[in-house]
Amino acid sequence: MVTKLKQYNPRASEIVNDWQVVDADGQVLGRLATQVATFLMGKHKPTYVPHMLTGDFVVVLNASKIKVTGLKAEQKIYKRYSQYPGTLKEIPYSRMQERHPTRIIELAVKGMLPKNKLGRQMMTRLKIYAGAEHPHEAQILGSDRREEREAAAEAKAETAAKSAPKAAAKKPSAKKASAPKAEVAAVATEVVETAEAAPKKTPTKKTAARKPATKTAAKKPAAKKPAAKKATAAKKPAAKKPAAKKATAAKKPAAKKPAAKKATAAKKPAAKKPAAKKATAAKKPAAKKPAAKKPAAKASGASGEK
Q1: How many CA atoms lie less than 13 Å away from 276 in the CB half-sphere?
Q2: CA-CA distance, 120 to 113, in Å (whole number)?
Q3: Which residues of the chain register pLDDT less than 70?
Q4: In angstroms, how far apart are the furthest CA atoms of the chain?
């Protein structure tokens, strides 16, 4: 039976990058280059992944004191060619060590790293110096003390985990102490509610007693309104309309055609007005039948005869 193992894929926050210091004094070039390449790729760690930067920063010191075996110091040649004819350049190892000792280690390590973006990013983490001095003391000191910091953090976490059960055991006592307080608060709220409910009952009775008064007040204007209507009904036809009619009847026949208006005056009260007045007399009270309207017609006739 074949068992499938889940591939390990660390997060970027889980990756830790330390600083490594390598002294090249008296070391062989190939052996040193392999060691530096493993540090840069991160293959010395159990969290190594080929598609991520899991390696460390590397500081190489005393690059001018590197050694090579056999006849390489005399026979090794570094070549550069720009792909244009006649531009091939050859630099022997002895001249390179005199002029650029750091390039010897750089070229050896570059040939052992992957030829892609990750390889170029790894090369930026390589710091090579010909002497024993370097400006990365703070970074190296911080990486050395990282283990101490992690141990202190673990100790704090353990103490916090041990103190957590004690706090959990103390919490019920606090709940018990808070329970009587909750009961006292509930009793106090009940007392306040009863005190508030007692005075609320009396205003309801008062409003109930006052409601009939409002009803009677509403009924009284109902009795008064018909009287006002009667007064207005009696005033409107008797005072305003006949006066206007008298004025028109007095003005129109005097100025214009008296003979034609006599005939109309005789026809209108006989045919139209009495029928309308009978309908109004049936709807309105008996006070509305004015006896003054008939003499008004007579007066208009008398004025016409004159």
Answers
A1: 7
A2: 9
A3: 1, 167-184, 191-192, 195-306
A4: 165
Predicted local confidence at residue 169, as pLDDT: 63
Residue found under tokens 């008062």: 206
DSSP assigned state of 63? G
Cβ(106)–Cβ(63) below 8 Å: no
Q: Where are the domains of the chain?
A: 19-144, 224-306
Rama region for 5: left / alpha / beta (φ>0; ψ in -120 to 50; rest): beta
Question: Distance (Å, rounded) from C-alpha 168 to C-alpha 151?
Answer: 26
Sign of the four-CA dihedral 24, 29, 31, 33 = positive
Q: Classify domain 19-144 at the CATH class level.
A: alpha beta
pTM of the model: 0.52
The 10 Å Cβ neighbour count of residue 37 is: 22
pLDDT digit string, tens, across residues 268-293: 544 454 444 444 434 544 445 554 44
**245-260 pLDDT tens trace:** 443 433 444 445 444 4
pLDDT of residue 296: 44
* Integer Cα distance of 105 and 60 in angstroms: 9
Q: Closest by alpha carbon to 114, among 172, 40, 185?
A: 40
Residue with tokens 């309104």: 225
Structure tokens at 119: 């390889």
